[in-house]
């Protein structure tokens, strides 16, 4: 099963099997820690979790919850998750439609639960968006717009800091105006982020 999922190293196969045979997030977390992986091998945990999640037919909160648990456990997992997501965003055009949807779901889950900041999207090349990246960003923003106004303000607050993240802020503003004109998404995000 691990080989079929393209887990092509012993470390990845070991992580895959540990996760696949765990009863819940707590058991998976404890069992993965007991593997005592260090450095690059430890970073493979996040990679494998993301790859397993992208292969799911339906949204399975197990993987985002487990990734969030590692991020809460140690800051190094936040950075690892961010870099892993950046890699997936860069290669999004090679992903199948279902994997793109899962990627958007994962990014949304991690941002809306404040595991990662909205600045995780700073890797997006707003001037040369491909259809694949555009579809992922569209889904992320649409899902974020279903959050409360208070939460949306907290999420987008890093973009409101003057002289910081200005390219990301402008990219999102333009993306919203082009992709969500006259929609609830534009209105909801406009009340908070765009009004500033």
Automatic annotation (TrEMBL):
Domain MI span(s) in chain numbering: 10-126
What is any one GO biological process for this UniProt entry? Answer: ribosomal small subunit biogenesis
Which keywords, in A-to-Z order, does the entry hold? Nucleus
Q: Check the record and name the SMART domains matching this protein.
A: MA3 (SM00544)
Which compartment or compartments is the protein found in? Nucleus
Q: Which GO terms describe its cellular component?
A: nucleolus
Is Nucleus included in the keywords of this UniProt record? yes
> Origin, by domain of life?
Eukaryota
Query: Can you name this protein?
Result: MI domain-containing protein
């Amino acid at each position: 099963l691990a080989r079929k999922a393209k887990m092509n190293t012993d470390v990845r196969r070991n992580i895959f099997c540990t996760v696949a045979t765990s009863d819940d997030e707590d058991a998976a977390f404890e069992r993965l820690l007991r593997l005592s992986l260090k450095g690059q091998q430890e970073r493979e945990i996040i990679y494998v979790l993301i790859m397993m999640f992208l292969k799911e037919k339906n949204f399975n909160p197990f993987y985002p919850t487990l990734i969030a648990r590692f991020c809460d456990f140690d800051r190094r997992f936040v950075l690892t998750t961010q870099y892993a997501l950046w890699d997936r965003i860069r290669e999004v055009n090679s992903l199948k439609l279902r994997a793109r949807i899962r990627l958007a779901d994962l990014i949304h889950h991690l941002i809306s639960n404040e595991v990662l900041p909205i600045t995780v999207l700073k890797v997006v090349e707003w001037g040369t968006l491909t259809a694949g990246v555009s579809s992922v960003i569209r889904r992320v923003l649409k899902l974020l717009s279903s959050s409360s106004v208070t939460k949306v303000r907290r999420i987008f607050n890093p973009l409101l800091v003057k002289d910081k993240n200005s390219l990301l802020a402008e990219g999102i503003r333009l993306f919203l105006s082009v992709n969500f004109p006259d929609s609830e998404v534009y209105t909801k995000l406009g009340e908070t982020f765009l009004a500033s």
